[in-house]
Amino acid sequence: MSDVTTALRAAGLRVTAPRRAVLGWLAGHPHSTVDEIGTGVRAELGAVSTQGVYDVLGACAAAGLIRRIELPGHPARFERRAGDNHHHVVCRSCGRTEDVDCVVGAAPCLTPDDAHGFLVDEAEVVFWGVCPGCRTTPRKEASP
Q: Among residues 79, 94, 85, 89, which one has the least CA distance to residue 124?
């Protein structure tokens, strides 16, 4: 039995070809957009609607199998790494997104100065910068 099949069953979800394809795609392509996931799944299965991809992502996110990442100015991205409170670094130029592990030991990012009565269970930190590839590529100036 595959890792994907085991994960779906453990989450109480039916094992379907679209769910297996989406989770399989995300295992090798973290931080993918819905369009990227749809293209990858269609290459494997043939016809799968964009709504079908959204449905799978919604069910898998609700079950805790994937994480939805919403970065300002970018389309939502999805990844299989869920539930460990890691963060992300994003290139301002090309949008490349990589995982950044939280501080080892105590998680200071989970202790806000004033939680206003909230029980905080997750923090999201995004580091912005320019990736190595974009730093070595000369920028094209915008045309007037």
A: 85
pTM tops 0.85: no
State pLDDT tens for residues 104-142. Answer: 655 556 677 788 999 887 778 889 999 999 998 765 544
Annotated binding site: 91, 94, 131, 134
Residues forming the annotated binding site for Zn(2+)? 91, 94, 131, 134
Tell me the domains of the chain and their CATH numbers: 3-69 (1.10.10.10), 84-136 (3.30.1490.190)
Separation of alpha carbons 144 and 141, rounded Å: 9
**Which of 122, 121, 125 lies closest to 100, judged by CA?**
125
